[in-house]
Amino acid sequence: MGLLDVFNSIKVKAENFLNEKNVVTDFLAKLEEKTGIKKKIIAAGAVSLTGLYLVYGYGASLVCNLIGFVYPAYYSIKAIESLNKEDDTKWLTYWVVYGVFSLGEFFSDIFLYWFPFYYAFKCLFLLWCMAPMSWNGSQIIYNKVVRPIFLRHEATVDNMVSDISGKAMSAAENLTREVLSTLVKNKSLVTPAPPETKSLPSSSGETSSAKVAPSLPSEEQRPFLG
């Protein structure tokens, strides 16, 4: 496939996108009604202004990340909802490459930030990765770089993940057991002891203790009877 075929394929995809019913095309249609300018020209002008903004504008990082995320996310959702699974594989490949690129960019951004026109080249790279052709950037990088490394270290990574997950489950079980035992101990310490019940004296006991038998008079106290 030559360079001309690539441009023709991109042109066809862009025309199909502009003819679809979505938020972007509805907005372009309203602009076409108000200005009288065809939405193809408006879209081309917007792309040109975006390119200039990526070179000279402020906040180019945000614009570049939106370009690399919004369009693929939209078509990824469409791929999930469709019955065809080929487009699922295509966009899964893109997201794997996008994740690897973002991880590498995180550690090298402090150096790449000072590179002239960095965000313009980054945007071109992401557009190449999502380009509507069989040999786009995501396919090439995945087949030439990501896939060989993954197949070479797949068993090691699986064992590592299994070991880590087992240790995590064991740690979670031990932590849960300790928390439950601590709660049970605290509950036993806080719970007050039941009050002692005092038995009431019986009525027969009260009567016998209250009534004291009268003492008999002594011989000296007795009256003398002559």
Automatic annotation (TrEMBL):
Pfam families per the UniProt record, alphabetical: TB2_DP1_HVA22
Compartment list: Cytoplasmic vesicle, Clathrin-coated vesicle membrane; Endoplasmic reticulum membrane; Membrane
Keywords: Cytoplasmic vesicle, Endoplasmic reticulum, Membrane, Transmembrane, Transmembrane helix
Organism domain of life: Eukaryota
Disulfide bond listed as a keyword: no
Keyword presence, Protease: no
Xref: InterPro entries: TB2_DP1_HVA22 (IPR004345)
Residue stretches of biased makeup (Polar residues): 199-210
Name of the protein described by the UniProt record: Receptor expression-enhancing protein
Organism listed in the record: Amphiprion percula (Orange clownfish)
Source lineage: Eukaryota, Metazoa, Chordata, Craniata, Vertebrata
